[in-house]
Amino acid sequence: MKRIFLFLATNIAVLVVISIVLRVLGIDQAMASRGGMGPLLAMSAVIGFTGAFISLLMSKFIAKMSTGAKVITGSEGETQAWLVETVRKLAEKAGIGMPEVAMYEGPPNAFATGAFRNSALVAVSTGLLQSMNRQEVEAVLGHEIGHVANGDMVTLTLIQGVLNTFVVFLSRIVGSIVDKAIFKTERGTGPGYFITVIVCQILLGILASMIVAWFSRRREFRADAASAGLLGSPSPMVSALKRLGGIEPTALPESMKALGINDKPGFMSLLSTHPPIEQRIAALEQR
To answer: What tens digit of pLDDT does each residue of 197-224 get?
Structure first.
């Protein structure tokens, strides 16, 4: 269970569903037959940004479902009360609304998500609470609050929307070429166009996810810096990262990895959503 599946997989799935609906309604075929790059680009932008924003609006729901995270109020016990109060303190200091706070069973990790900075979700795993002291947990919470305060999910959505636009646009260009050159469709579009569009959207969507992953790696440094600012020192975050560096990162479910605190790059480093912990520690120690 790894990688950036939450936002990217939902996004690609939404694009495919929208394409199928447009095909059934005949809108896609009409746009392809009309010709002209302007209308096609406009339609691509509508599809692309719709897919990205639907993924954003679904992010909290999918996060809870995929991790089994349960929202807490602080009345459940002393640990839960401390978590809720710590998140409240950090949120007030960061100038954002109080996020929902949740816990889930799993190895050491945490994540933040949500469409709006004043109604986000911050969740921590039981493994994180068991393996870190409270100062380190507070630093991790500061990191996640930093993501929310920096508007990372919205920025990610806008980037994904732009990339989606080009994925949809190029997929239809390639679909038209294949339909006419290989399937010899002379008028309108045939099945070859639709099949090629769907395949290209999936393949180009995976390539686009590399750009999203690059942005995700950049935002981790900003969130680390935000944690240092909220706690008044980089030391707690450095300590938390060092502890994470010694923990086997079996971390989050695949759909949540892009939002977590710990994600060691593997073979597919271009799709890694987090930079190496050593680089993050070095950046903090230079503050």
So the answer is: 889 988 888 888 888 888 888 899 999 9
Please, what's the b/e burial string for 36-63 (b: 16 or more CB within 10 A of its CB; e: otherwise)?
A: eeeebeebbbebbbebbbbbbebbbebb
Which residue ranges form the domains of the chain, and what is each CATH number? 5-65+163-285 (no CATH), 67-149 (3.30.2010.10)
Range 221-237 burial, b when 16+ CB lie within 10 A, else e = ebbbbbbbbbbeebebb
Query: b or e along 13-26 (b: 16 or more beta carbons within 10 Å of the residue's beta carbon)?
Result: ebbbebbeebbeee
- The active-site residue, picked from 100, 138, 144, 220, is 144
Note the pLDDT tens digit of each residue in 229-256. 999 999 999 999 999 877 444 444 444 4
| Amino acid, res. 285 | E
> Sign of torsion, CA 227 218 263 101?
positive
The span from the CA of 264 to the CA of 24, in Å, is 42
**What are the structure tokens assigned to 8, written together?**
């990217």
Asked if residue 36 has pLDDT above 70, the reply is: no
Give Cβ neighbours of residue 46 (< 8 Å, ≥ 6 apart): none
Adjacent-strand bridge partners of 151: none
* CB 281, CB 242: distance < 8 Å: yes
The sign of the dihedral angle between the CA atoms of 84, 63, 155, 120 is negative
How many other CB atoms sit within 10 Å of the CB of residue 82? 15
Q: Dig out the tokens for 183 from the structure.
A: 């399937």
Does residue 225 contact residue 287 with C-beta atoms inside 8 Å?
yes
Residue 100 is among the residues annotated as catalytic for this protein? no
pLDDT tens digits for 47-104? 888 888 888 888 899 889 889 999 999 999 999 999 999 999 999 999 999 999 999 9
Q: Give the number of C-alpha atoms closer than 13 A to the C-alpha of residue 189, restricted to the C-beta side.
A: 25
pLDDT for position 24:
72
